[in-house]
Amino acid sequence: MKPPPRYADRLLEWFCAPHLLEEVQGDLYERFVRDVRDVGSQRANERYWVNVLRFVRPFALKRQPIEYSSPFSLSPVMLSNHFKIAWRNLVKNKVYSAINIFGLAVGLATCLLITLYVFDELSYDKHHKDVNRLYRVATETKQENWAATAAPTALGLKNDFPEVEQVTRLLKVPNMDKMLLRYTHNHQQKQFFETNGYYVDSTFFELFTYPFKYGNPQKAINQPNTLVISETLSSKLFGEENPVGKVINVGLPFGDYNYTVSGVFRDTHKSHIDAHFFLSMQNGDIGNWVNQQKNWATNNIFYTYIKLKDGVNAQAFEAKLPAFLNRHGAADLKALGVSKELALQAVPDIYLTSSMDNEISANGSMTYLYVFGSIAAFLLLIACINFMNLSTARSEKRAKEVGIRKAMGAIRASLVSQFLGESLLMSLLALFLSLGFIQLLLPVFNSLTQKNLALFQNPIFVIWIAAITLLTGLLSGLYPAFYLSSFRPITVLKGKLINSISATALRKGLVVFQFTVSIVLILGAIVIWQQLSFVQNQHLGFNKSQKIVVPLQSNQATGNYTAFKDEVLKNPNVVAAASGSTYPGIPSDNDLLFYAEGKTVHEAVDINFATVENDYVETLGFKLLYGRAFSKNFTADSTSIILNEVAVNQLGFDPKTAVGKHIYFEWQNVRHPMQIVGVVRNYNYESLHQEIKPYGLTTTIGDKHRYFIASVQTTAYAKLLADMEQSWKKVNPDTPFSYSFLDQDFQRNYEKEQRTSSIVLYFTLIAIVIACLGLFGLVAFSAEQRTKEIGIRKVLGASVPSIVALLSKEFVRLVVVANLIAVPIAWYGMNQWLHDFAYKVTIEWWVFALAGLLALSTALLTVSFQSIKAALMNPVKSLRSE
Amino acid sequence: MKRTYLGEFEEIVLLTVAVLNDAAYGVAITDELDRQTGRSVSISAVHAALHRLEEKGMLSSHMGDATAERGGRRKRLFTVTALGSRALHDIRAMRDQLWNSISPNALPAISI
């Protein structure tokens, strides 16, 4: 007889519970035989399939509990027993539990804080629609990478390439970092300087996604003289009102202009374009100038963004750019005597990976993310090691329990799961504690990182918390679980437990690892601190202290400049004052190509320059080596230039004889001569990240009334500033007074390092604390274990110091070994970090000695506390028991 | 009466087991149900009901003989337990009581 369909049978055998299979299959067979007889084998097969499938129902699927082989560890009784034992162990050994949980909690808290930070850094520019098709076009020359391009690039790209879907430009006007916003309502005027305002093309919001609170992003910036403001700015100016249609007066150094608000965007998403407001590029102030920009070589200050069409290969597209630039810009570039190339940068990568010159604002850094990430991981690891070390060291205490469990029939897997469960419980307790820590520390951390982080703003973060906690539990519990569960019941129940050599060696290795990490961090902190104080105290070639800078960022302020200056100079505490287009410490982006007499434009030197007033050199205290400074006694200074030594050398002159020589630059195909009237000693006009480059001071090219700089001599700054404000108010009643100190502005260039240094410092402290906690636990344990030995030694006449030495020796040796390992690692790492500076400290030997000594003394302090306690114990007490 | 929670289908299966007496197993019960009530039920439904009844303690079972047409597999033979019997009697008593309480002309006549 033909059997029923084989696969249906297999299926049944697979899903049906074993204890039901026989009767079910028998019944189905019986029915099949009848069906074959009644309706033929074809239909019988079909019916068999249907009948089999109908058995897919709970009663047939449910397995009968099989006696003897069920996993004990999962039964509720065993689970509650495990929980109870874990809890008792926790409570019984309060010190060790506290060390473990506190260490883990601190490790988890730092790890989670860093994760928050990293998540935030990674979130930049990820929210734009079709973000993978957005690119920024940057300029590359032989000397530098420049984040912006010349004005006509954007439109040229759109016209020439069908691959380009849309283009847009963003303009950040150099030396105009603030704009005065004024809003008048019911005769009340609100006005303040606002930074981060950028001019953008009408297509801007087609490329970049900004969620709008009011207004329509598609039409927001289409009309001339409109602006879009951030939610924060909107509430500052208008409160809760919908500001669309309202008029804001924007005060610029060359006039006041009215703009109509056409939209408000929410500042929920982060972008490398950290705008507070956007102004339309078509406007009454710089609109005309922008429209005149047809030159492909000069004024590379337009940030150009393109959106490629779907499916366009960016690399292939980038390969077409040299030909494109050659087609349009060859003549302009040749006239200027420069060569450059265009490059594409993917927008989502800009924030973390791009660090070109002239970025819109300071970007993040992937390297620092890696550094912070690995430090966080190491901290967590150190905390996990504490757990591993303490639980293996104290394994003797649990050995009897393991022995009895095994004798009662526990298999290894169930013991492993028990111990893993315990460590998971620990990490869970630590998690709750660490969430408390985080809540406490977030404000501090936020001010440290200048971010606005919150615990549960990102749903993925909750998954991270769970993952990290699980990882912590497993990481710290895995080795102890396997170690403890490997005990042989007979040996341990006899009471013989020899800490195996491999376990002891591993424990020592882990302690060495902990201290290696700590020492590397100490070294890092010292070197960073050294470099920062070096940078702060390095002589810059001029006197940066006692200089007050007042920005002249409105039409009124520039117009009434002379009156203000005269007013301020009346103050006896003001030594000298002058205005300039820029001052040392802030970006100085104006440059021209100059060439010396008898040379051609192709040998030109790129010289950055500031346009300054008479007395600028004296006010800032530059050292004039040869020639003279600008002075009102020389009326023909309009074509004079003062150069620094680097510029003079690169132009091919000898500084001694350079005064009186002529140099030239070309502007709109006209050759302009300049005469060198002075040579100043090199000074750092940028941060010490940069070498000193060719620099010049002129009186005419561009606008000199941007910043008013006063050199003062006083101790009563508050009084002086109040007086200055008084003078300002007298002359400029409609413009708010603002000021800064030059040395602080200079310092702002090192914010990133400052931040890193404080983060590393805190991490170092945390690492040392956790490592010492672990050490403390280990020493406490070894002292406890050797109570009798110490008692006997004391009875036989051992002194307290000798016993302290006995207990401390072993651990001190470990720290010394850690020192030896840490030194080369830290040396290499810190040299890498110092690479970013043009001016840097050398790492000296005493730094290593100091770090080692620090680590050693902290370790000794920790160890001695316990060992002295043990050594002072009365031997009568320790020997009495038993 | 609180103890006897029997679904209608369960009741019928329980009765059929009683009808078949010593030869009550899956296929036989299915066939008997078909024959007696005209219901065409699937074997799995009958198995599920039997399983449930056994869990409730109204049926007991033991493995019977193997036959060739079953591929040498044994049948599970079911018998009604005392509890099952009690349940059936309770249900019947309750129905009878209800029938007896109906006044003669309360129900509309069905046949002429």
From TrEMBL, chain B:
It comes from the Bacteria. Coiled coil: none annotated. Residues 19-89 form the Transcription regulator PadR N-terminal domain. Gene3D superfamilies: Winged helix-like DNA-binding domain superfamily/Winged helix DNA-binding domain. InterPro entries: Tscrpt_reg_PadR_N, WH-like_DNA-bd_sf, WH_DNA-bd_sf. This is PadR family transcriptional regulator. It comes from Spirosoma arboris. The lineage of its organism: Bacteria, Pseudomonadati, Bacteroidota, Cytophagia, Cytophagales.
